[in-house]
Amino acid sequence: MKVEYPEFTGRYKVGVTEFIVDTGREETLKLHEGGVRKLSCRMYYPSTAEGIEGKERSEYMSRQLCKAYKIDYDKKMAEGENRIDCYVDAVPAPGEKFPLIIFSHGYGSFRDSNTYMCGEICSQGYVVVVIGHPYETMALNYADGTCVDIDKKAMETAKPIIPALISSIKLISAKGTDEEINDKFKDFEHKYYSGLAKRVDAWCIDTDDVCDYVKAAYSDRIDTDAGVGLTGHSMGGAVAHMLLRKSDKYSCAINIDGGLFGEYEGMDIRKPFMNINCESNKTTTTGAYVNCKVPVFSAIFKDMRHLGFTDLIFFFPVKSQVGKLPAKSLHDNLTKLHIAFFDKYIKGVDIDLDKCHNEDVTFTQKG
Predict the structure, then answer these.
(1) 4 lies in a domain?
(2) CATH no. for residue 193?
(3) What's the CA gap between 172 and 280, in Å, rounded?
(4) What domain range includes position 81?
(5) Is 87 inside a domain boundary?
(6) Which residue among 82, 111, 219, 262 is the one 20 to 30 A from 284 at the CA level?
(7) 210 confidence band (pLDDT: 50, 70, 90)
(8) CA-to-CA distance for 303 and 319, rounded, in angstroms?
(9) How many separate domains does the chain show?
(10) Contact by Cβ (8 Å): 278, 306
(11) Model pTM?
(12) Of all residues in the chain, what percent carry a pLDDT higher than 70?
């Protein structure tokens, strides 16, 4: 069956380019110590109908990434399902600059896991940069043609064990105040997944490096005065949450179904934040509602599973992994909430966020 992917609906066409950020920092993952940490990034930026003329549509999944996921690359290309409506090195929209949004993938996922969401946000007038965090993502391709495979030993940090699985099941059904549920989640984290807090910190440094690089290297297309928004799925969402608490660089942030791993006691949320969750993960994010000093929002999607918040919702057939919510409803709600949130808190548009979703989402303001 042919997969139906969403079309971008904004007034802008979407240009795309890839680049490398050489951080100059020594790699801290044990098996790669001594090397320099280099980040593979993809930028989506607004273009025009004239700007994409003669430009090639971007490849979605590389041959290496298809191999990692056991997908037939040649068949996918032949069927026309491996090109997206993002045009390589298109001419940027002339005479305009746009706010910057930075996205990070989930732990062990792939860099472009939310391509259709990022492309839609871009089409509405944003520059969106996605970061590939090396060794902790599947088959990470670089602009120079090299590719880095996932480090399976590094991934053992997040490998579930039987006691952790039992505890996570108890956590899903936890009752109590936001503070009480958060205390249970932090106990769970400290007992089973304390290593993830260190990786959240490492990814935060990655994000800061990319933010600084992009604002300097692409100042011709980025409105540096408008503020910078953050979003991310799973671990990437935890990173967005952490940076909003501890850095002055970012204006607002969205967490897409990520447990709020990391140590942030004493760092109140003082800028707008939104948790987007499936029902089974909402108990991992209540820390955002404790002592918040500004509006903090919760959007719970019904009939969803964790992986369904990525592009897998469009083509992965196992509903127990992605959820039963129709892909169109997931995409429409996910993108509308993102765009309205960033429009409100970066562009200053007067928007009622509770009117930017349908009945498949339960939306509340916590702060």
Answers:
(1) no
(2) 3.40.50.1820
(3) 6
(4) 13-365
(5) yes
(6) 111
(7) very high
(8) 10
(9) 1
(10) yes
(11) 0.96
(12) 96
Query: From the CB of residue 326, how many other CB atoms can be counted at a distance below 10 Å?
Result: 12
DSSP structure string for 21-90? EEEEEEP-SGGGTTSEEEEEEEEEEEE-TTTTTTPPEEESS-HHHHHHTT--HHHHHHTT-SEEEEEETP
pLDDT in tens, 120-143: 999 999 999 999 999 999 999 999
The answer to whether position 6 is within a domain reads no
Contact in structure between 109 and 130 (CB atoms under 8 Å): no
Taken as a whole, the chain contains a residue count of 367
Which tens digits make up the pLDDT trace of 163-192? 776 788 789 989 999 999 999 999 999 988
Q: How far apart are CA 189 and CA 262, in angstroms?
A: 9
Token representation of residue 334: 């996910």
Gap between the Cα atoms of 186 and 79, Å rounded:
47
Q: What angle do CA 343, 347, 348 make, to 5 degrees?
A: 90
Distance (Å, rounded) from C-alpha 328 to C-alpha 341? 20
> Is residue 122 domain-resident?
yes
